[in-house]
Amino acid sequence: MSNLLRIALLAAVCVGFSSSLPCAGQIAATPDLSGTWVLNLQKSKMPKSMTIESEKVVVVRMGSIVEFHFTTNGKRAKTYTYSVDGKEHFLSEMVSSPNHFRDYYKAKWQGTALVVTHRMSVEVTPIPIYAATDEDGFTERWSLSPERRSLTRTFTGREAALNSLTVYDKQ
Predict the structure, then answer these.
(1) How far apart (Å, rounded) are the C-alpha atoms in residues 110 and 152?
(2) Which of 71, 88, 137, 171 could form a disulfide with 118 if both were Cys (CB 3.0 to 4.6 A apart)?
(3) pLDDT digits over 106-164, tens only?
(4) Predicted confidence band of residue 32 (pLDDT cuts 50, 70, 90)
(5) Are 8 and 119 spatial neighbours (Cβ–Cβ below 8 Å)?
(6) Rounded Cα distance, 6 and 11, in Å
(7) What pLDDT is recorded for position 24?
(8) Helix/strand/coil (H, E, C) string of the chain?
């Protein structure tokens, strides 16, 4: 094999390999939200119906998976695991006879913010009576401050009474 052919073959392999890697712009556009964050009640705007006195969120990122572990009012609350790929996934369900609620989500990066759109479906067992569209769900938007010392979550949906802005400080 001639040297020229070897160099051409090596160049083709390198180009193919490098095109499968994320470029620097893609990495910078998806910040790592990982860490322990504590709710700052003074900076947050929540509905009066929310009875949160304290909240801690531990965020863990593993590749395209982001987990949020909530401790609310001193009690371990919920863990949400999102696959950030823009595809719809099943998140959770709650059965409260005769209703059956299912929560589906799509998570994706929009610039430097993680946006999670939820779609709810409600069934009266066993007959589906309502399947919601994206417009009937709600959206969470998680973003870091430029100095990476605070994490903001905006929660918006069709019912304005449930909309909120929560700000968490890095612990």
Answers:
(1) 15
(2) 137
(3) 999 999 999 999 988 877 666 655 554 444 689 999 999 999 999 999 999 887 778 99
(4) very high
(5) no
(6) 9
(7) 40
(8) CCHHHHHHHHHHHHHHHHHCCCCHHHHHCCCCCCEEEEECCCCCECCCCCCCCCEEEEEEEECCEEEEEEEECCEEEEEEEEEECCCEEEEEEEEECCEEEEEEEEEEEECCEEEEEEEEEEEECCEEEEECCHHHCEEEEEEECCCCCEEEEEEEECCHHHCEEEEEEEC
CA-nearest of 133, 100, 128 to 118 is: 133
Report CA-CA distances (Å) from 62 to 53, 67, 82, 149, 170: 30, 8, 10, 21, 19
pTM over 0.70: yes
For the chain, the residue count is: 171
Tokens 């070897």 sit on residue: 6
